[in-house]
Amino acid sequence: MTVPPRRFEDSDCIALTGNATPPDPLIATPIIAPDECNALTCTQQGMLVPKTSVAGTSGPAPGRIVDDLQSVDVIVTAPAADACPQTYTVKAYLTPLRGEAGPVTDVDLLPTRTSQTWADTALEVTLPDPGTYLVTGDIDTTICATLDYGSSTNLWTEVRLIDLASGSVELGPRQSSQHQFSTSPETRFQHCQHGPTPLSGLVTVSAAQGSKTVRVQATLHGGGPGDGLNGSTIQKADFVGTRSYLTWVKIAD
C-alpha cells in the first residue's frame, strides 16, 4: 500500500517548520502581527493578552470618592466578568468646585474718608486648593448727604478684593457709588446714591499657598478744601453687606 505524502501549509496565523520526522519534527509557531497596538504575545505559558483595568478619577458624580480636587469627574462602568466582548462605559462630568458668600452685615465707611484707610467687611470666601478661580462680586455701597443752600458734594466709594493672609490686592479697586451734586443759593435737598458694583476677575492659588481666603474691603473718598464737604453734611456712607454677594468657580487645576 502506498502512503500518500503528508502535506503541511502555513496559515495566516501559524507558521510551520520541519517535515514531521524524528530528525526534523514539525513545529508550529504563531504569527503575531507587528502592529504596535497588538497586545497579543507568545509566552512560555501560552498565548497572552494582558487584561486592561480602567478606573475613573472620582465619582459617581456629583459625589466624589476621595476628595474635592477635580474639576472633571470621570466615571467608568466595567463590564461583567464573563462578558464578551468586554465593553467599558466611560462618562465625564464637569463638576468644578464653587461657592458663594453673602449677605453679610453692613459696615460704616465714614471713618475711612478722613483716615484714608480701607474698612474690612465680613464678605469673604476661601478658595480651597491650587488652581485658577473666577471670582465675581456683586457689591453695593451707598452715600447719603444733605446739601445746604449753595453747597456741593464730591464723594465716592471704592471696593477691592484682598488676599487675607498677605494683604495684597487681588481685584480692584473699583469705584462704586458717587455723590456729586451742587445747589443754588435758593436750593437745599437731601439725596442718597447707591452703587451696585461688579468686582470680577481671575484669582490664582499657588501650590505653595495651598488655599487662599479673599475678602472685600471698602472705603470712602471726598475731595475739596477743608473737610471736602463745602457746606454739605454726610448722613451716612455704608458698605451695604445685606445686598452684597461674592461667588467663585474653579476654572483650571
Could you describe the 3D structure shown?
By secondary structure, the chain is mainly beta. It has a 4-stranded antiparallel β-sheet with strand order 7-18-10-15, with no helix packed on it. About 3% of the residues have low confidence.
Keywords:
253 residues, mainly beta, four-stranded antiparallel β-sheet, 1 helix, 18 strands, rod-shaped
Lay out the secondary structure.
Layout: E1 14-17, E2 27-30, E3 41-43, E4 46-48, E5 72-77, E6 89-94, E7 98-101, E8 107-108, H1 110-115, E9 119-127, E10 131-139, E11 141-147, E12 152-163, E13 169-182, E14 189-194, E15 197-205, E16 212-222, E17 233-239, E18 245-252
Antiparallel strand pairs: 1-2, 3-4, 5-6, 7-18, 8-17, 9-16, 10-15, 10-18, 11-14, 11-17, 12-13, 12-16
Sheet with the most strands, sense and barrel status: 4 strands, antiparallel
- Compute the average pLDDT: 83
What is the helix tally? 1
Kindly state the number of beta strands. Answer: 18
The end-to-end span amounts to 83 Å
How are strands sequenced across the largest beta sheet? 7-18-10-15
The low-confidence parts are 59-66
Question: What share of the residues lie within helices?
Answer: under 10%
How large is the share of residues in beta strands? over 45%
